[in-house]
Amino acid sequence: MGALVTITCASCGGSVAMEAGRRRPACLFCGAETLMEDDRAEQIEAADTYVPFDQSEAQARAVFKEWASKKFWAPSEIRGATLGLNGLLLPAWTWSGTVETHWAALIRARTQSGKRPTSGSESWAVDGVLVPASRSLTRAELAEISPFQSAVEPFDAEEADLPFELGQLTRTAARAAGTRAMRELHAARLEDDVSAVRLSTSCLFHDLEGTPVLLPIWIGAYRVGDKPYRVVLNGQTGAITGTAPVSWVKIAIAVGIGAAIMCAGLMFFGVGALILGQ
Q1: Which of 65, 95, 219, 261 could be joined to 178 by an S-S link, Cβ 3.0–4.6 Å?
Q2: Cα–chain center distance at 2
Q3: Residue 35: inside a domain, yes or no?
């Protein structure tokens, strides 16, 4: 593989590293044709491991077709939409460690107020918390297509066959995002365990280990009318998330049918009341 260059989209900000001279007519993330080379010096820690693909392009396209067929409120054009699909290695950080949570909560009780205070502390070992290091993929999107298997292989940027997005988080920023995710996960677990009405927490973190890693995804862009939409698939499991248009014609028809049924019901009960009244 030849020298690598950074290609950045002026529309969405997504960046990928790819072989110099390879033609990439549109952004992998949003489909825009506003690409430019970026010669900035990258100071962010690069991943030296990646999770390999298990889903082929054909399998990914089949998943998209099934997903599109279940979008009842979308216009029928979505089922025949042309999907531009690309494999991409997505940057993320994976964090493990122990979160020590000191908590205070209000729980339901047989008191005058219906609640009583309680408190405690708990330590929880957490492994494999993923934090996206991408400009284009959010934590919510990553959560939608997770999990990824933990088995990784060595990654060599000079030998990469697929484009890979450049990470956008320093270790310090990734650590902050990772500990925040651990705190939220433990708080949700505690809320369920104690059936808390309200919960406050304070956390300490021990033995934190963070590693940058590249995750396999299929990213696709399709159009309905003049508007682009995006889908993202887990390259291992085929789990999919994405956006889809809404057909206001279908919604109007559904509302009309609902209103007609309601009117028919009111008329039926009204006539029945008149008969009983006689």
Answers
A1: 95
A2: 32
A3: no
